[in-house]
Inverse folding.
């Protein structure tokens, strides 16, 4: 079976099935579908088509029950609130950072298809930031009136490694591209940091564990729905990153070493983005949601290994978090 995808191409039955899964509310299905998308290495045009078919508005989610549940002191322990607030703030601030830093990437991409896809991604990241801003105002009762006020209130909660990853490593490579958009090696490094490490390894893993708990506990249904939409977008972005790096390696084998060196430099800092700075051992701790840090680290490394395999890379660049 095949139908028009709306852009002159035909969508096959397999592609329609994949789209159905990406529109499903089960985050594990979304993650499993990401692996299939990555392995299939869809064209940039198909990734753009997915963006057109998966559009959504941050204003459509009903946060009324979420607000009632968040205010219920019998529903959340102090430690759960603290951990959940820290995790959500990590995403909120991260969405703003990547929205700001992505433009030099889009300018530096050598093809129109790549630039157009990254333009769509900038719009995605901005929408994610608006989604979190709305959640903080309406559910967490932040008392703020602007996105800037909300972000300023949450930024002090971020620890040194988080700041180094976003305001150091990611910002530096974006600045390099801003000054010289023709520096393709810097673009390869930036896509590795952004789409593979930050989005593909950290964000999707953290989201998977948050959403798994909220689904099992049947809490925060409005946030759960919206955050699943956020992660469908992130899955598409990661698919772009894997294809871009795979193409770069095919064009010139030396980029394989650039990717590996970038992973080796970035992962020791990035892996601690999972870890709140108040725990005694940031590599070995229990969360207040019934899972241990080792589960997150293991899931993240398996996820990264699959992306490297799709790019034709070995897993030698993955360092143990312990």
């Amino acid at each position: 079976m095949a139908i028009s995808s709306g852009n002159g191409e035909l969508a096959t039955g397999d592609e329609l099935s994949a789209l159905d899964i990406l529109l499903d509310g089960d985050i594990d299905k979304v993650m499993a579908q990401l692996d299939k998308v990555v392995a299939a290495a869809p064209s940039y045009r198909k990734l753009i088509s997915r963006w057109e078919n998966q559009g959504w508005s941050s204003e459509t989610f009903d946060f009324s029950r979420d607000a009632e549940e968040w205010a219920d002191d019998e529903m959340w322990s102090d430690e759960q609130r603290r951990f959940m607030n820290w995790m959500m703030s990590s995403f909120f601030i991260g969405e703003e950072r990547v929205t700001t830093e992505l433009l030099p990437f889009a300018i530096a991409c050598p093809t129109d298809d790549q630039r157009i896809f990254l333009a769509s991604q900038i719009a995605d990241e901005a929408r994610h930031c608006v989604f979190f801003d709305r959640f903080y105002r309406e559910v967490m009762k932040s008392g703020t009136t602007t996105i800037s006020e909300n972000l300023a209130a949450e930024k002090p909660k971020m620890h040194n490694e988080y700041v180094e990853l976003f305001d150091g490593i990611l910002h530096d490579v974006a600045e390099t591209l801003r000054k010289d958009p023709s520096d393709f090696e810097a673009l390869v490094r930036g896509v590795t940091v952004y789409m593979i490490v930050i989005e593909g390894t950290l964000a999707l893993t953290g989201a998977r564990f948050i959403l798994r708990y909220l689904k099992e506990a049947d809490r925060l249904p409005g946030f759960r729905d919206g955050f699943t939409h956020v992660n469908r977008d992130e899955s598409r972005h990661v698919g772009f990153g894997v294809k871009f790096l795979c193409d770069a390696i095919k064009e010139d084998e030396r980029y394989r070493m650039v990717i590996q060196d970038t992973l080796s430099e970035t992962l020791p800092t990035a892996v601690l983005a999972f870890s709140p700075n108040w725990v005694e051992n940031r590599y070995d701790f229990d969360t207040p949601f019934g899972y241990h840090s080792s589960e997150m680290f293991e899931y993240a490394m398996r996820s990264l290994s699959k992306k490297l395999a799709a790019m034709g890379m070995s897993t030698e660049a993955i360092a143990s978090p312990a």
